[in-house]
Amino acid sequence: MQLMNRAPFPRPYPLVEATEVGSAIPIRPQRPTLVARWSLTDGQLTCKWIVE
Question: Distance from CA of residue 23 to its chain's centroid?
């Protein structure tokens, strides 16, 4: 299945909506907070825990 010539994901992204490139959107308003970062350069969506 070839997906290289297609867009990475449809807009808006089903799980998170990025307001700007590289913006971190908190998914759960808790501590630690799970944030997702959308990168348009490599087309990757990464999630990580941020402990405040």
Answer: 8
pLDDT at 39 over 50: yes
Count CB neighbours of 5 within 10 A: 5
For the chain, the residue count is 52
Q: What is the pTM of this model?
A: 0.26
The verdict on whether omega for the bond into residue 32 sits within 30 degrees of 0, i.e. cis, is yes
In the numeric block, the tokens 């941020």 are attached to 50
DSSP string, 5-52: TS-SS-SS-SS---SSTT-EEESSSSSSEEEEEEETTTTEEEEEEE--
Q: Which two tokens stand for residue 11?
A: 């807009």
Confidence check: pLDDT of 41 > 50 = yes
